[in-house]
């Protein structure tokens, strides 16, 4: 199997939306859980492809784009860009559920809450790990080594820009992903009841 790694572009929007949905439930297919299948991509993929503060790479095989790593070198700057240029249009299209607590909310409304009240990255994390990333692979590329190559390409881009560290969030339930990140040298920065924040120093 030949897999090509290349820079992500706006032409990859549809493919990244699909990947985001098909891996959006702790690494499993989230299609059955969302009444709006576009929501996950709108929150976790599209802004990195369309805002200049985002960067990313995609993995493409003979059948098309089947994986991505998306993120930003500067989380605070990216958050500010989203507040100015990304969230307002989504807020106009999606109602505010009125609370940020996930208790009692549907998966759609949890994302609606995030759109209306995005949670900023903790200052104690971005002080040393200012970049962040998201990585997802369709099942046909999982376990192929493609994830490692995507991460290495992304980290190389950050190192070339002089970024000191990168962080990411991962659900505790996604044990396969947690093991993957730890194998690549990520360590725990913060522990939450249902999620971990992991970090990797660069340079």
Automatic annotation (TrEMBL):
<dbReference type="GO" id="GO:0016746">
    <property type="term" value="F:acyltransferase activity"/>
</dbReference>
<dbReference type="InterPro" id="IPR016181">
    <property type="entry name" value="Acyl_CoA_acyltransferase"/>
</dbReference>
<protein>
    <submittedName>
        <fullName>GNAT family N-acetyltransferase</fullName>
        <ecNumber>2.3.1.-</ecNumber>
    </submittedName>
</protein>
<dbReference type="Pfam" id="PF00583">
    <property type="entry name" value="Acetyltransf_1"/>
</dbReference>
<keyword id="KW-0012">Acyltransferase</keyword>
<dbReference type="InterPro" id="IPR051822">
    <property type="entry name" value="Glycosyl_Hydrolase_84"/>
</dbReference>
<keyword id="KW-0808">Transferase</keyword>
<dbReference type="InterPro" id="IPR000182">
    <property type="entry name" value="GNAT_dom"/>
</dbReference>
<feature type="domain" description="N-acetyltransferase">
    <location>
        <begin position="3"/>
        <end position="203"/>
    </location>
</feature>
């Amino acid at each position: 199997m030949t897999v090509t790694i290349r820079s992500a572009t706006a032409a990859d929007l549809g493919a990244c939306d699909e990947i985001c949905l098909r891996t959006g439930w702790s690494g499993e297919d989230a299609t059955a859980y969302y009444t709006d299948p576009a929501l996950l991509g709108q929150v976790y993929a599209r802004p990195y492809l369309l805002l200049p503060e985002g960067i990313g790479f995609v993995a493409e095989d003979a059948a098309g784009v089947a994986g991505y790593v998306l993120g930003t070198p500067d989380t605070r700057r990216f958050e500010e860009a989203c507040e100015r240029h990304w969230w307002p249009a989504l807020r106009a299209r999606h109602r505010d559920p009125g609370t940020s607590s996930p208790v009692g909310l549907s998966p759609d409304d949890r994302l609606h809450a995030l759109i209306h009240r995005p949670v900023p990255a903790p200052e104690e994390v971005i002080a040393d790990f200012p970049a962040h990333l998201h990585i997802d692979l369709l099942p046909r590329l999982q376990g192929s080594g493609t994830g490692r190559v995507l991460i290495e390409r992304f980290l190389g881009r950050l190192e070339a820009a002089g970024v000191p560290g990168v962080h990411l969030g991962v659900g505790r339930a996604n044990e396969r992903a947690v093991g993957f990140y730890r194998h690549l040298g990520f360590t725990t920065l913060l522990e939450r009841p249902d999620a971990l924040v992991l970090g990797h120093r660069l340079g």
